[in-house]
Amino acid sequence: MNIAPLDIGHHPEVYGMLEQFTLENPHVQLPPDMGNFRHVSLVLFGIQNSGVGYVSYNDQGLTGMILAQTISDVWIPEQRFLVELAWWVKPEYRGGSAGARLLKAYSRRADQMLQNGDVVAASLSTLTDSPKLKLSKHGWQPTQQQYMRTQHA
């Protein structure tokens, strides 16, 4: 399994993975039929330019992704945060090394951005039914538990 930074050539496959990610995500962040490749591609360009994006791949193509964007603090706009948006591996590659390698690449880049002062904090989220990953062993510390209501609750 290999890891590469997100680039324009990955956009069509990442778009497809985002559609699958949305279907598996209990709090839908994107409509199941996103239908707007141009908009999603612009978001992916933003991630390439000021966020963090990596894909995992093998000889058959892309196997997973991790995407994060930088955002300004609502109270102190000069402070920026790195916020993970999507961390997803195709079902047939789960249980292998893709997810861990994506996490390692993201963690390294987040550490660089923290050390450079580009961001003051970086976040990572998991779903309540995600495998227990022992993220604190990788330098991530839990800060809060989030609860959500949706239109379908």
Q: Which strands sit side by side, in order, in the main sheet? A: 1-2-3-4-5
Q: Regions with pLDDT < 50 over 5+ consecutive residues?
A: none
How far apart are the termini?
38 Å
- Compute the number of helices: 3
Strand content: 15-25%
Structural class, please?
alpha+beta
Task: Break the fold down into its secondary structure elements and pairings.
Elements: E1 2-5, H1 11-24, H2 37-50, E2 52-58, E3 61-72, E4 80-89, H3 98-116, E5 121-123
Parallel strand pairs: 4-5
Antiparallel strand pairs: 1-2, 2-3, 3-4
Explain what the structure shows.
This protein has 153 residues and is α+β, with helices and mostly antiparallel strands. Helices cover 31% and strands 24% of the residues. It is built from three helices and five strands. It has helices at 11-24, 37-50, 98-116, and strands spanning 2-5, 52-58, 61-72, 80-89, 121-123. The chain has a five-stranded mixed β-sheet with strand order 1-2-3-4-5, sandwiched between helices. Strand 2 and strand 3 form a beta hairpin. The termini are far apart. 22% of the residues are buried.
How is this structure best summarized?
The chain has 153 residues and is an alpha+beta fold. It has helices at 11-24, 37-50, 98-116; strands at residues 2-5, 52-58, 61-72, 80-89, 121-123. A hairpin with a 7-residue loop joins strand 3 (61-72) and strand 4 (80-89).
